[in-house]
Amino acid sequence: MASDRGVSEETTVDVADAVSGLGHLIDGRIVRNDRSFPIDSPSSGEVVAQCPEATASLLDEAMAAAERAQPQWYAIGEAARQKVIGQMSDALVAHLDEIVAISALEKGAIGAALEAYAAPVFMTHLATTPIPVDILEDTPERTVTVVRKPVGVVAAISPWNAPILIMCEKIASALLVGNTVVAKPSPFTPLATLALGRIWKDIVPPGVLNIVAGGNELGAQMVAHPVTRMISFTGSVAAGQKIAAAAASSLKNLVLELGGNDAAIVLPDVDVETVAEAIFNAAFLMSGQVCAAIKRLYVHESIYQEMVEALVRRADAAIPAPEAEGGTFAPLTTRPQYDRIRMLLDDALTQGAHAATRAALPTSMGYFIAPTILTDVKPGMKVLDEEQFGPVLPVMSFHDVNDAIGAANATEYGLCGSIWTADVEAGAELAARLDCGTAWVNNHAEVAPHVPFGGTKLSGIGRNCGTPGIDAYAELQTRYVYKSAARVKGVKG
Ligand code: NAD
């Protein structure tokens, strides 16, 4: 999805109408308050909407509603909860055009908003997959099982880069197990999540799902709130560290999905054009604003030049501009992110890196940065050492694959990594040496609802998706059941 166009551009949604009247979802009601903050369009840099901002007292109301609703939500049972999740998914499908249009407004391009299409796939999976029960022993004497019980009220906090998919996955996972939720989207992209609340208001019982909009301070209040029993957070390492520290005193359960600095290693036996296409897509998906995008590329010296040229051709074919002006490549979603990528590029170029792609940026307004292939990048440059989360790909050459594995692992992050080779067995052995939560041979940047996803080192704690993703939202209860009545009744004689 390097090209960020090609989707229902003839949408009939009136986006101004769709964002008007949005409010927080609290205890089954849409609540609007006087405080608000501006939302700007990354395509133009101009303010395009105002978003209501929840106060601490509205958060208290949301937490109280979630706490009240939780016992009954658990009591209705797994099948009834799955039915509701299925209905939520169906309602999302019915309103996808509206959600994508709102998300495109706040994310800057329709292509950048397409992650919304994956959300019902994840929700449907959770609506149809039974919560596992582990049977450890089943003998005439006893059964020993492990069952999943709810944690209580879950605070779900999402970032701006894939706000719909990430939030839907969190909400559906938490609800499946019998938890209730207070959710907060990123202050950069809150409108589509508030629109989901409006869509789901009459499907979810009051209090079971609450959505409040606000900034980092509201997120911190959710984390510290005495009603919160679990925090499901996706975002930056810096915020994740603060959240872990704030959760420590009351030992709240945590799942933290944080940043990445993924490496891909290309061996000499590949077809360069084929692999360049796949790597370009996995690096520049949503303008590189994907946690699991390729951020560093190590290519064997024998095909290095050919690979750089193949990537540069693809990058230079992209048109970073608003879709209305014929653009094919989405902007950065936030002004701080735009400033940071400019800073990282300046830093690297000043230190001797070279941009192999055209340097010129479009003249239009907005947060556009052309997809950039960097060569001559060395450790010590921020663009290599830090998560850059933008449309920049440093490409390094290697002679010995052991050095490439060492370089790939020489980072404080551990989200994902990949090996590209025609020798699949050798590739699998090399992939096993990557220190990260997900390793691929001949692919990258892939997520699926039944496949656990998460990171090692600073990339996070815990996993989303798959069985570990259900366990993350559960307290495991081990149950011993002794079957002989004689153990309690004694022997009559
Ligand atoms: P961010 O950490 O700035 O913000 C994320 C969310 O946390 C927002 O809703 C924000 O308001 C809230 N927040 C910030 N400080 C908080 C605090 N102290 N307490 C509670 N809430 C707080 O991140 P971002 O800039 O929105 O997102 C980009 C980051 O997200 C990147 O680092 C990216 O790698 C990461 N990310 C990770 C994954 C993953 O699955 N590992 C997926 C997507 C994005």
How many β-strand runs?
A: 22
What is the share of helical residues? Answer: 25-40%
Strand percentage: 15-25%
3D shape? globular
Gyration radius over CA: 24 Å
Distance between the termini: 78 Å
Count of helices? Answer: 17
Oligomeric nature of the chains: single chain
Low-confidence stretches: 1-9
Instruction: Report the bound ligands by name, code or SMILES.
Output: nicotinamide-adenine-dinucleotide
> What characterizes the major β-sheet?
7 strands, mixed
For the biggest β-sheet, the strand order reads: 14-15-16-13-12-18-19
Let me know the average pLDDT.
95
Helix/strand/pairing class, anyone? alpha/beta
What would your notes on this structure say?
The chain has 493 residues and is of the alpha/beta class. The strands form six sheets. It has a seven-stranded mixed sheet, sandwiched between helices. It has a six-stranded mixed sheet with strand order 9-8-7-10-11-21, sandwiched between helices. It has helices at residues 15-19, 56-75, 78-94, 96-107, 119-128, 163-177, 191-200, 216-224, 237-248, 272-284, 304-317, 335-350, 382-385, 401-409, 424-432, 466-471, 486-489, and strands spanning 24-26, 29-31, 36-40, 47-52, 134-138, 142-150, 153-157, 180-184, 209-211, 228-234, 253-257, 262-266, 294-300, 354-355, 372-375, 392-398, 413-414, 416-420, 438-441, 456-457, 460-461, 474-482. The site of nicotinamide-adenine-dinucleotide has 30 residues, from helix 8 and helix 9.
Secondary structure elements and pairings:
Elements: H1 15-19, E1 24-26, E2 29-31, E3 36-40, E4 47-52, H2 56-75, H3 78-94, H4 96-107, H5 119-128, E5 134-138, E6 142-150, E7 153-157, H6 163-177, E8 180-184, H7 191-200, E9 209-211, H8 216-224, E10 228-234, H9 237-248, E11 253-257, E12 262-266, H10 272-284, E13 294-300, H11 304-317, H12 335-350, E14 354-355, E15 372-375, H13 382-385, E16 392-398, H14 401-409, E17 413-414, E18 416-420, H15 424-432, E19 438-441, E20 456-457, E21 460-461, H16 466-471, E22 474-482, H17 486-489
Parallel strand pairs: 7-8, 7-10, 8-9, 10-11, 12-13, 12-18, 13-16, 15-16, 18-19
Antiparallel strand pairs: 1-2, 3-4, 5-6, 6-22, 11-21, 14-15, 17-20
Bound molecules: nicotinamide-adenine-dinucleotide (NAD).
